[in-house]
Amino acid sequence: MSRKGTILVADDDYAVLDTTCTLLEFFGYNVIRCKNGLEAVVKYREHRPGLVFLDVKMPKLDGYETFFEIEKEFPKAKIIFMTAHADYSEWRKAKDRNALELIEKPYSAEELKELADKFCSK
Amino acid sequence: MVIPYDGKMPSLMSYKYYIRPTAHQLYGTEFPKTQHRQNIHKILKMLALKGPLTTWDMAKIRFATDSEKIRSKEKEYRRLLVGRTDRGRHSDGIIDLNIVLVDSKSTKRNHGNVYRLSLFGILYCLDQMNFSEKEVDMMAKNYKIILPLVFGKWEFLKSVLGKDVYNISLLGKGLLFDDLNIISIKKDEFYELISFFGIKANTLTGSLNERKIAEIISLWFYVTLLYFPNLMTDKKSEKGQKILYKVLKKDRDLHKWFSDFIKEASEFYRKRLKMLDSISIV
User: Which residue from B21, B174, B231 is facing A110, i.e. has the nearest CB?
Assistant: First the structure.
């Protein structure tokens, strides 16, 4: 089955990661799952996904550190942050470097689909 | 012949939070690399696609005529299914995780246990076996007796819903909607019904057998028809309701069963509303 594109999702909360990935697969995307920021950087290099969803609070590398790491090598990377506790100072820095959105948890399936359809490129 | 199991079974919550993650950990995900995990996936695939089997039948599928190999494979499969006890210590088999059940005793010459997938085994296969639509159809045919309201009506459902029937695999992936945050509250009737579904599924835990779990799975399947079609279309139409109505209109038994569920939900909310109204500070 031809998929709409590839999306990388990084979250250390297994339940959130699992639900987000299941829904994105259902919406027709290939999904790469990562449990922390470091894994996200490695898998980004390997797969070059069309869109990335990054949790802000993660072990090893947090969401913003992961963003800056990826952005250094791939300035056109499309990255959306997901957070339950927004840190706006870091978000402003990331936004200046072309981060797409900061969405607050919990997010609905509809919101997730809208963002994926809007930003994911093959 | 598949026989529904009347003994006590874990809940769907247990599938989501214990059985599925444990099975992932023990048997690996979609494409297992070790021999042990590959063998387990082979057993599950045979039980899904061929229906109930003895370990001898399974070994014969692998090695049609070589009786020496059949004998050794049969032992291996039996060990994987029931586990083993070595120097007083028992290692669990697939049966201990409630993915496979003993269906009956074989009436053939080498009478042994006949094994089959449990409802959780079916969900696990939908999640992990990477089945084609044709293979899901075969599994539905083999297990229509234990999931009568969905697999028992599979061909009819396919004729009305088309590929949407295969969305049942989302339940296999644990998308129970027990976290209501993922649903936009704008989809009123779905929100109310899936909330009630969650309450019903959780309050049945003390007395669950396979028939009741089958009913819960069926409720999930029909309630989510109100949701997934709407989610997949860009138009804010009432497509979900129309599709559900189309199914129920053509099958009297389903119509009666689902109407009873809606009545039960309405009654539940009516009582809850009364309780809220009775709070004296309002």
Answer: B231
CA dist., res. B150 & res. B168, Å (int): 9
Domain ranges of chain A: 29-36+62-89
Q: Which residues contact A74 (CB under 8 A, 6 or more apart)?
A: A44, A48
Whether the ipTM is more than 0.85: the answer is no
Report pLDDT digits (tens) over A50-91. Answer: 999 999 999 889 999 999 999 999 999 999 999 987 667 888
Point out the residue among B174, B179, B231 whose CB comes nearest to the CB of A113.
B231
- End-to-end, the C-alpha distance of chain B in Å comes to 59
CA B53/CA B106 separation, integer angstroms: 9
Closest to B203 measured CA to CA, from B275, B112, B264, B273: B264
Q: Say yes or no: B163 contacts chain A, CB-CB below 8 A.
A: no
Burial class of residue A103, CB neighbours in 10 A (0-12, 13-18, 19+): middle
| Residue B30, amino acid | E
DSSP assignments along A5-40, one per residue: -EEEEE-S-HHHHHHHHHHHHHTT-EEEEESSHHHH
